[in-house]
Amino acid sequence: MQEDEYLFTKNKVVFDGKVKDKNIVKEEIKNLAALKPNQKMFGILPVRLGIYNFTFDKKETKFRWWLKNKIGEAPKVYNEDLIKRSRDNFKLYMFNRGYLNSSVSYQSSFGEQKVFTKFTVSAKDVYTINDVVRPTPENEILNLLNLSKRKSLLKVDDNLNFIILDDERKRISDYLREYGYYDFRKDYITYQIDTNQTHNTAKIILDVKAPNDTSWHQKYYINDIYTYVDVSALLQDSSKLDTTFFDGIHFIYNKKRYRENTLASGIFLRKNQVFQLSKYQNTLKKLANYGTFKFVDIRFVPKIIDEKHVLDTYIDLSSAKKQSLSVDVEANHNFIGLTGTSVSFTYQNKNIFKAADLFEFKISTGLQFNVGKKNTPPLNNLDFLVETNYYLNRFLAPFKVKKYSKFSDIKTKFSLQYNFERRILFYSLHNMGFNFGYTWRKNNNIGHQYNPVALNVFILQNKEQSFIDRLNEIPALKRSFEEQFIIGSNYTFTYNNLKSTTDRSYFVFQGKVSSAGNLIHGIVALTKQAKNNTTPYKILNREYSQFARFELNIVHNLRLSKNSSLHSRFNSGVIIPYGNSTIAPYFQQFYVGGANSIRGFKLRALGPGTYADTANITNSNFFFDQAGDFKLEANTELRFGIYKWFKGAVFFDAGNIWLLKKDTARPGGEINKQNFIRGLALSTGLGIRLDFNYFVIRTDFSFPLIDPRYNGENRYPLNNFKFNVGKNSWFRENIIFHLGIGYPF
To answer: Is the pLDDT of residue 121 over 90?
Structure first.
């Protein structure tokens, strides 16, 4: 900086008058400033400016140049012209929000080579809409315009907002294009705004103007449809073109890579039908969702045939790579001496059998080691998974379905898995599963997943004596581990109210219902086995489970500012065994703790209720048997930016699991008024996130505020807080460290 220059440090905005959503308005206004101060870490330290100043007068090398220009940030120097531009931007923003008589003044305060500017926004009274007048329905367009007014964004008594006025023009344009008016643009919608009404009110007069080249707007119909399959290949070699005609569509290619019926099922436009915007958009969406094309483009060429306005349609498809192989590697470590690593390989074929279907094959393996522990084997856990998935871009059923909507974007999925887990000192587990079902979306906000067939077989082997002894101590736990079939179905409903990426607040709701054993139990009940024996019944000499499982998950996201947001989650679930089962299978029960749950506790280390097993609490190599029938959990996390992809978080987690029935081997575990209130755990912590958009690396440091496993002072760990370091320090005994990929919710 020169001696006559001043470092700009702050834009301060204050309001004179009432403003709706003042905090949001203030944040949005600051983003419109033409001159902004240097970025600050934690909102306090201008670290990038410091790096720039540190390297500014040093001898320049490649590294110092990179440090100064890429990591550092040059000082933001005060400029009067930019301040005036900020003032004008602020005034225009307020005008667009209905504060037509607002004014903005500023005052800059100079110090020792530093300056900040205070903007005072005099909002005056906001204008509101007192009437919306639409043209008389003299023709089809004007009639449609009036029919759509119930969906209008312009409401009497709402604030006059020019941004919403523009949104209404787009809504009307899209609505008319749905009825065949292909070339209708929002520019044809005009407004007259009469503010000579009662005090601070506006009358909006809406009209439709005609195109310059014709007397009025024309309705268009689809004519010939040409689909160019794999455009890039056609451009490289157009000497050997083949054309086939299927379902009213011309398919042009030089090598047949896809079946015509596969492509035709994703094209909703048909010859002689009136143009509809939704069919155009659904065609783009459906073909893109096939996953086998890099891009999809649709072009229309208007023509007049026999005084009828028609559109020749050209669909350009560019194929992506048919096959792919990816490798993922993860590593983690925690303070209790467990270090883990995993590697996975995924192969995908995106166009198997030329039907644009996806075939996926996964292999993954993971190891977890005991580090620095005495009298324990070096290997703690071994996991191996093989999974095959096959997705069809259509509805497939073993029986004929009379009618279903092509617009639902339905996919049929087959899934086959085998998982082997070896827990050293405890057991070996074989889990084989098969799923058949469907996924589809009604629109961008509502999704469904239904698996009419969900089969799992658990086989437990190599049970160590310590594990057997543990099962014998808790009969209910032993029963939950018995080998059995799980044959059932499940359904998941997902809803979010997100309308656009600019929404400040939105939530996601997910509900899942699962049941098992009902059909097979009905069949077995008619056999001789049911007549001569009591439950539990068996098939293939193995018991089968019968239960109902319900789970609810609600996530709310609230943007507080440009670089900060508040995220909250509520999660609850219950599993009810009945019929052939008295205890729900262990791997279907609920648990809490760990990197994505109540982070102040290790995975499965909490509950049920106030039950506490001293051996499990003090032994880091404990058996993970803390599972329950009922789960209740709530989380809230404040996320804030520090520097670009480097972000931080402060969070609170609460909840626990409980048993539906009393278990004498686990006192305090059943759900009742006393155990419910005293069983609620609470933890807090700080986190660092490396958010690269396409993936997130997350670290969390957390500790319990309320630990229901204890009574007295130990129930509140902060009562024993001591700032010390060492082997038995408070931090080492209470802080739980998690390393994860992605956000916890």
So the answer is: yes
Q: Which two tokens stand for residue 598?
A: 């109540």
Is 622's pLDDT higher than 60? no
Query: In whole angstroms, what is the distance from residue 724 CA to residue 730 CA?
Result: 7
Please report, rounded to a whole number, the percentage of residues in the chain having pLDDT higher than 90.
59
Report the pLDDT value the prediction gives residue 247, as an integer from 0 to 100: 95
- Beta strands 128-133 and 379-392, pairing class: unpaired
Least confident of 71-75, 178-182, 224-228: 71-75
User: In Å, what is the CA distance from 667 to each residue of 474, 476, 489, 712?
Assistant: 11, 13, 33, 18
Q: Which of 84-98, 535-549, 660-674, 717-731 has the lowest mean pLDDT?
A: 717-731
Map tokens 């048909």 to a residue: 270
Give the 3-state secondary structure of residue 357: strand
- What's the residue count for the chain? 745
pLDDT at 35: 96
Among 29, 37, 46, smallest CA distance to 87 is for: 29
State both tokens at 173.
């344009």
Residue type, 164: I
Name the pLDDT band for 249 (thresholds 50, 70, 90): very high
| CB-based burial label for 724 (10 Å; 0-12, 13-18, 19+) | exposed
From CA 309, how far away is CA 143, in angstroms rounded? Answer: 21
Q: Residue for token digits 């312009």?
A: 154
Task: List CB contacts of 703: < 8 A, sequence separation 6 or more.
Answer: 600, 683, 684, 685, 717, 734, 735, 736
Q: Please report, as a single letter, which amino acid is at residue 318.
A: S
Return all residues near 171 (Cβ < 8 A) that are at least 6 apart: 148, 151, 152, 153
What are the DSSP E strand ranges found in 230-378?
242-246, 249-253, 293-305, 308-319, 323-333, 338-352, 357-370
439: left (phi over 0), alpha (psi -120 to 50) or beta: beta
Q: How far is CA 47 from CA 51, 71, 503, in A?
A: 6, 10, 31
Residue 396 in this model has a pLDDT that exceeds 60: yes
Question: What token pair was written down for 728?
Answer: 């038995």
- Phi, psi angle pair for 243, to nearest 5°: -130, 130
| CA terminus-to-terminus distance, the chain | 45
- State pLDDT tens for residues 105-115: 999 999 989 99
Over residues 49-64, the mean pLDDT reads 87
What is the C-alpha separation between 728 and 615, in angstroms, rounded? 18
570 forms beta bridges with 554, 634
- As given in the structure block, the two tokens for residue 236 are 């490289």
d(CA 191, CA 398): 57
> CA distances (Å), 290 to each of 226, 572, 631, 703, in order?
19, 34, 38, 45
What is the pLDDT at residue 271?
96
Instruction: List Cβ neighbours of 234 (8 Å cut-off, separation of 6 or more).
Output: 228, 241, 252, 253, 254
Q: Dihedral of the CA atoms 242, 245, 249, 253 (nearest 10)?
A: -10
List phi, psi (to 5°) of 674. Answer: -70, -50
Please give the full DSSP string across 480-548, using - where no structure is assigned.
HTS-EEEEEEEEEEEEE---STT-SEEEEEEEEEEEESHHHHHHHTTSHHHHH-PSSPEETTEEE--EE
Q: What one-character-per-residue DSSP string does 46-96 give? A: -HHHHHHHHHHTSPP-HHHHHIIIIIS----B--HHHHHHHHHHHHHHHHH
CB atoms under 10 Å from CB of 195, counted, come to 12
Distance CA 548, CA 168 (A): 47
- Grouping H, G, I as helix, E, B as strand and the rest as coil, residue 448 is strand
The tokens of 491 are what? 């359904």
Quote the CA–CA distance of 7 and 79 in Å, as a whole number: 10
For residue 116, which amino acid is it? F
Torsions phi, psi for 347 (to 5 deg):
-110, 135
- Residue 337 above 60 pLDDT? no
